[in-house]
Amino acid sequence: MSRPTTIPEYIETMPEAGRPHLRQVYALLRSVAPEAEEAIKWGAPFFVEPRFLFSFAGFSQHLSFAPSQEVVDAFRDEAEAAGYATTKKFLKVRYDQPVPEALIRRMAERQLADVAARETDSFW
Length: 124
Fold this sequence. Notes:
Layout: H1 7-12, H2 19-32, E1 37-41, E2 44-48, E3 52-58, E4 62-66, H3 69-81, E5 85-86, E6 91-94, H4 101-117
Antiparallel strand pairs: 1-2, 2-3, 3-4, 4-6, 5-6
Helix pairs in contact: 2-4, 3-4
């Protein structure tokens, strides 16, 4: 099987149990950043403008949403209080949990604002 070149193709390569979650997150991020370029970079779906906005990725039991470390830090307590795991740069959503749409939307909107306010054109 060839490597996916679009986000919908990427989602179809993921475990069947995770595809509904991945489709839901994809639709949500598209609604937050409709002008962003969609790409597969480093094997994961990315939204760029051309600077990095956010990415997400599917795994066997969960998905990860990756805005920036600063955004994850800002929402970490809320996410963990709601039962979602976080790492330094990711929000993790198990496939047996509902997708926290409101939380991911706020995180994505914050990331968009942070990127727009940056004075550098650096990708990261």
